[in-house]
Design a protein that fits this description.
Blueprint: H1 2-9, H2 19-26, H3 43-47, H4 55-70, H5 74-78, H6 83-94, H7 114-134, H8 136-155, H9 161-184, H10 188-204, H11 208-224, H12 228-241, H13 248-265, H14 268-283, H15 299-312, H16 316-324, H17 332-348, H18 352-365, H19 372-385, H20 392-401, H21 405-409
Helix pairs in contact: 4-8, 4-10, 6-10, 6-12, 7-8, 7-9, 8-9, 9-10, 9-11, 10-11, 11-12, 11-13, 12-13, 13-14, 13-15, 14-15, 15-16, 15-17, 16-17, 17-18, 17-19, 18-20
Length: about 425
């Protein structure tokens, strides 16, 4: 028996149909979360991208997602995002009645106070800084481990309504971060599932501003995946849903997400109108009235969004202008994206030498980043350069770029 357990722990085998259910019962979890290969009805809870029907369902589902993620449950990582899930979640949130907070789930659970909520917030903020500096792949599993091990017992604990709403809001924000980090690693189905749970938790906390920000994240992902209509719809739903409690910065960010999606559809006029609305909203902001987690969105971030938009509607010179104003020096990954958009815009404007020079700056900037999205920006730039491979400038650039990890990652297998 000891040899069999060692084989399970080392990943050389999985418990059979007799021992698997016993282990699941002992650990009070499901086979999927333990990384077992036996399929069952309970797996559908994880694999279906559904919006939780109740606060209890959200607590149960997000806890199982965290455990399955930690155990490397492969179907989760291979799952595709669901277009109907975006539409269902946004509609259900928009028409949801005023939430009635659930009673504590267990009488014997730990007592939870505001100090516990503050600890979660501080810890999540530290992980967010790591994500910003090193990319989503750097500490993603550490975030999930913290949520699964330390936060799950608190969600199942005893708390007053006031503490519970603060707890749900803070956990929603941390789960949103988990979604962003999973999105950055291009585990898109998993990211969508985290976004859905974050939206439900924010709804139950009655935190409409945060819920709108979750929809904005969904919009960003949908546009990245080529679902432009859904991206625009989600951004508009975010704007509509927070109207009673809207702040200028939130409105600006949501208008910018709408513009990003519209640019991809080729609707230049609608894109420009959305960008104008974002600019106007941002000009009236008062930082004292904004949620702390949206403070990053400023003129520099809006310039980066505008640079993406004008690149996508083939206004290369305007993209160059905005991208040149989009380097903050404070957000490594965002600066990498803006620098690559600038390089791409120079290429589209016909300035090949400057495009290659700027792309090298981006590679230097991204040397410590572990981000599949960053790799995707470079892969797109490589495709553009392939049309000018006989140019000496391009050959010199490629010789220098081969020394960079991200450039190698963006190459085809035959080039590595």
């Amino acid at each position: 028996m000891k040899r069999r357990i060692a084989s399970w722990e080392n990943g050389h085998s999985v418990p059979d149909e007799f021992y698997g259910p016993l282990l699941a019962e002992a650990f009070r979890t499901g086979a999927a979360e333990l990384g077992l290969n036996h399929s069952g009805g309970e797996d559908l809870v994880l694999l279906e991208a559904g919006y939780p029907a109740s606060p209890d369902a959200a607590i149960e589902t997000v806890g199982r997602l965290w455990r399955a993620d930690l155990n490397g449950y492969e179907p989760l990582f291979e799952a595709e995002p669901s277009e109907p899930a975006w539409n269902e979640a946004s509609l259900r949130w928009l028409v949801a009645p005023e939430p009635s907070f659930p009673s504590p789930r267990r009488d014997d659970g730990p007592h939870v106070g505001l100090a516990d909520v503050a600890t979660i917030k501080t810890t999540a903020d530290l992980f967010a800084q790591l994500d910003d500096r090193f990319g989503g792949e750097h500490a993603r599993l550490a975030v999930i481990q913290y949520l699964s091990r330390d936060v799950t017992p608190l969600l199942n604990g005893r708390y007053t309504e006031a503490v519970g709403r603060a707890l749900f809001s803070t956990v929603a924000e941390a789960t949103l971060l988990a979604g962003w980090m999973s999105y950055d690693t291009c585990h898109h189905g998993l990211a969508q599932r985290y976004f859905l749970q974050a939206l439900r938790l924010a709804q139950d906390a009655n935190d409409r501003r945060l819920a709108g920000s979750v929809l904005s994240a969904m919009s960003h992902q949908a546009t990245f995946l080529g679902r432009y209509t859904e991206g625009a719809t989600l951004a508009r739903a975010a704007l509509m849903g927070i109207s009673p409690v809207a702040t200028p910065t939130l409105r600006a960010q949501f208008h910018a997400m709408e513009a990003r999606a519209l640019a991809r559809t080729g609707d230049t006029r609608a894109c420009e109108l959305a960008l104008a609305a974002a600019t106007q909203a941002l000009e009236s902001r008062n930082s004292d009235d904004e949620p702390e987690w949206i403070s990053y969105f400023d003129e520099v971030e809006l310039a980066a969004e505008a640079a993406h938009c004008f690149r996508d509607v083939n206004s290369a010179r305007q993209s160059v202008t905005h991208a040149s104003n989009a380097m903050s020096g404070n957000h490594v990954r965002s600066d990498f994206f803006a620098t690559m958009v600038l390089a791409d815009a120079h290429f589209r404007a016909g300035d090949l030498e400057e495009a290659c020079h700027v792309a090298l700056d981006a590679l230097d900037l991204g040397e410590q980043l572990k981000s599949a999205r960053c790799v995707s920006y470079l892969a797109e730039f490589r495709q553009h350069l392939s049309r000018a491979e006989d140019n000496n400038v391009v050959r010199d650039f490629q010789d220098q770029a081969r020394e960079h990890r991200l450039w190698v990652a963006a190459s085809s297998p035959d080039e590595r």
